[in-house]
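#struct-pred
JK: can someone run the complex with flavin mononucleotide? inputs below
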Amino acid sequence: MKTKITELFGIEHPIIQGGMHHVGFAELAAAVSNAGGLGTITGLTQGTPEKLANEIARCQEMTDKPFAVNLTFLPSLTPPDYPGLVQVIIDAGVPIVETAGRNPAEYLPVLKEAGIKVIHKCTSVRHSLKAQSIGCDAVSVDGFECGGHPGEDDIPNFILLPRAADELEIPFVASGGMADARSLVAAMALGAEGINMGTRFIATQDAPVHQNVKDAIVNASELDTRLIMRSLTNTERVLNNDAVERLMEKEKALGDKLRFEDIVDEVAGVYPKIMHEGTMEVGAWSCGMVAGLVSDIPTVKDLIDSIMTEADSIINQRLSNF
Ligand SMILES: Cc1cc2nc3c(=O)[nH]c(=O)nc-3n(C[C@H](O)[C@H](O)[C@H](O)COP(=O)(O)O)c2cc1C
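RT: done, structure tokens with the ligand placed:
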């Protein structure tokens, strides 16, 4: 399938694996890229420029296809060494960067000068237009359904994607709630040039996370995610568990008085314990409503191949028969 996104990134299929904290390691990124999609290493999981350089080198050993690095710009008291991380990406010849969080304008000139394509993840049309105006090559439009941070507007993809299509000139992919061929075809019908998936890619054999994480996604229904941290204007969609219930009790009790320190036990530093040790109840971790559509743990290659084959039959049989 040829779309503006496959052309822009030099990939075979219009399927991107979004950056995921403590999931987006070289193994997953290389598996997605080798299967013809665009895999992504999560920069902040590595933390330092040296470690990121090492992870990029590992990925380059596992694939000769293009892959991306995600740079998430978060408000932080002790910010990561963003200039150092950007320099490592440039030096290693990584062709694509997925930015997320704050406006990446500060780093766009140096990335563009190095010939790097930038796709910015946005949860609203106004942020997508901003990304376009500062020179991003594409955007990932992340609907209310998404795992992780859906923003504060709560607009689902059935509205957000056609709104983006009406306004944007640069190509965009649909992110949030994407799982299979039906998602891909629907996203394309709504104006997207491809899809970005997070949760679906965790439940694959290639994702380097504990089996308990994959099983939790397979066992979850679309009713099992919760939104947390709304009163901190840092809303996150997570899978419900004991820690999330505890956290939500505190939110209920403290209301607008809630401070980050009140919930630090449930959210800070929990990812390594969950993703690598499989201690699932220790804290809150991002997960999309799309878990309700995930019922198996295929290889990344089988997942991507089946999406493309079934998309072809939806387009050429089901839709063309109407
Ligand atoms: C466990 C997990 C961790 C994530 N970490 C990040 C991250 O560090 N940076 C980022 O930009 N997006 C992150 N995301 C968001 C994904 O890249 C993607 O946009 C989102 O999962 C899409 O929604 P879906 O889960 O419905 O496919 C994360 C998502 C999950 C599920």
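RT: quick notes.
The beta strands are 15-17, 39-42, 67-73, 96-101, 117-122, 138-142, 172-175, 195-197, 225-228, 236-239.
The mean pLDDT is 97.
JK: thanks, will look after standup
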